[in-house]
Specification:
It is a single chain. This protein has 303 residues and is mainly alpha-helical. The protein has one domain. Helix 6 packs antiparallel against helix 7. The chain starts with a helix and ends with a helix. The N terminus is likely disordered.
Length: 303
């Protein structure tokens, strides 16, 4: 298949929608090849900002969530009238307060992330449409879309925090009322499996909402998320296939990094992993843009 036949599938015109995850990834590679001239100056800034945000999330929010889950499990074995139970409950309430404060703190670097993220998505979207691109054109588009992207990121972040908080409360209530009547495996499966399944769907909506807020003028915030939910109807299986392949790529890269740590010092490993990390990060954004175009084409019913 030639380049002229390959790219229109993600550009949104001419051919019937693909239902194969491998074909989507093939077109992602073509897309990156078209956009590399605009992407190259942006990659370093994007990697630094996204890495700092991810690192901040890992060292602040994740430990609090893990601590809350441990306390929830510990409460299952305690008598509700005992002092140990009340101490665990007070600890959970304190963790919730710290989690809320950490979530607000994570909003502070958002402005630094928005502009490079906006640049990368705009460059990929322009390449998908085969538009003739200059850096000046890209900057002009950013001035029109960055506020909408910022709004969508805020909504997505608040919704993700709210979902995790609500899920932990439901899990606590379930364990408190029914935990003594079910084996640990059954109670965990009942609360964890549906929660993770819904989280996967919401994650798909949030990532597509980010792309919508950049590519569709006038759609941002809840409007962009609603548009994303509309576009992905009937395409969930394809999204799962694409993300399984993404996971395999991540797993392969992570395995290589583990092997490198065993044969060399950490500084060399960090230097070697820098560029692959950069490519994987941008590759994931390209997949999101490609999947968006696929969903949009299917929703519009192009032949």
């Amino acid at each position: 298949m030639g380049e002229e036949e390959c790219l229109p599938l993600i550009a949104g015109g001419g051919l019937s929608p693909t239902s194969n995850a491998w074909e989507i990834l093939c077109r992602v590679a073509k897309l990156l090849g078209r956009a590399w001239k605009l992407l190259f100056p942006l990659l370093f800034i994007y990697l630094i900002t996204s890495t700092l945000l991810l690192f901040g999330n890992y060292i602040t929010i994740m430990p609090l969530i893990v601590d809350m889950v441990k306390k929830l499990f510990a409460m299952k074995t305690e008598d509700p009238s005992s002092s140990e139970f009340l101490a665990l409950l007070r600890g959970i309430i304190e963790d919730i307060r710290e989690l809320a404060a950490a979530e607000v703190g994570m909003m502070l670097p958002f402005p630094a992330l928005v502009v490079p993220l906006d640049r990368v998505i705009n460059a990929l979207a322009m390449a998908a449409k085969k538009e003739k691109m200059t850096f000046k054109d890209l900057l002009y588009k950013i001035t029109r879309t960055w506020k909408g992207l910022f709004s969508t990121l805020l909504y997505s972040n608040f919704l993700s925090f709210g979902y995790i908080f609500f899920w932990l409360l439901l899990r606590f209530a379930f364990l408190f009322h029914f935990g003594h009547y079910l084996p640990p495996f059954a109670s965990s499966a009942i609360t964890i499996v549906p929660g993770l399944a819904l989280l996967l769907y919401l994650q798909m909506v949030w990532t597509q909402g980010v792309v919508v807020s950049v590519t569709e003028e006038g759609r941002y915030g809840l409007t962009a998320l609603g548009r994303a939910a509309e576009l992905i109807q009937g395409r969930i299986r394809l999204w799962l296939g694409v993300n399984c392949l993404k996971f395999l790529i991540f797993a392969g890269w992570y395995l290589i990094m583990i092997l490198l740590r065993k044969v060399t010092n950490p500084l060399i490993t960090l230097a070697v992993s820098f560029y692959p990390m950069l490519l994987v990060s941008v590759f994931c954004l390209a997949v999101d843009v490609a999947f968006y175009n696929e969903c949009r084409k299917a929703a519009e019913g192009n032949p």
